[in-house]
Design brief:
By secondary structure, the protein is of the alpha/beta class. It folds into two domains: about 10-200, Spore Coat Polysaccharide Biosynthesis Protein SpsA, Chain A; about 205-265. Helices cover about 40% and strands about 15% of the residues. The strands form two sheets. It has a six-stranded mixed sheet with strand order 3-2-1-4-9-6, sandwiched between helices. Strands 5-10-7-8 form a four-stranded mixed sheet. The protein is globular. The chain starts with 7 loop residues before the first strand and ends in a 6-residue tail after the last helix. The mean pLDDT is about 85.
Length: about 270
Amino acid sequence: MKFKTPEVSVIIPVFKAHKTLARAINSIRNQIFAYEKIEIIISVDDGLLYDEFKKLDRNIKLLKPSGKIMTGAGQARNRGIKAAKGKLVGFLDADDTWSQNYLKELVPIALRYGVAFAKTEIFNNNGEHVCLLDPGFNIQIKHFGLIPGSYHPLVIRKFAGPFPEGPTQDVIHAIRLLKKIHYRYKQPLNAKYELWLNKSSKTAEKKFSKLADNSYKKWRYYYLKKTNIKMYYSNLEIIKALQLKINWNNRYISSRSKESFYEFISKKIKFS
């Protein structure tokens, strides 16, 4: 039985993602959660054909851009949000996966508080564990600097967007969400967003760290230039977190390491 109104809409922005998309979709289909309550929205951003993936399941929607292509992952997510029907919206990159208990643990928290985050586990291109980004009992804005990485939310639809433009749009979106909710909550015990260091992805390119560094500097300046003292202090935690992100990127760039960013920081911070 297919529910008229899905509980969860999962948005997957795709760009040259034919090799990894099936794995991402299967991680959703294998959730310990009523699959009939899930809709999967494949938001195409490269102008290529993905019709073969729509045939995998009737819960899959293929969202093709009506105008400009190559607008970036943030804009592809925004198009997906507009098309979403679920009470909750989740975000999964086409080369990443969810642990089987992801929705089972996050859905109750997101319905109660409006947003929920899982831990992020990093795997290399060979499927080997690199590190686990675990902020502990609850996630706060400061963790985006102290434990540099990406955290992807499950969120009620009214909080789902919009995503800004640029290479760090997912980080800024998550930080804005945490600022909006103004509270702390218990983290899911075992649920993980599984981030794969795919060598063919844009984020794996060395130049991406420089692009990210410039983006974080831009956003730090945006929050710094607030002339109202009250607004400045309300954004101080964001400013500090972005400065830490800048520091980490600079350390990685200046090291000229041949490793990925996550492999580099896994040796600098005590991870699980």
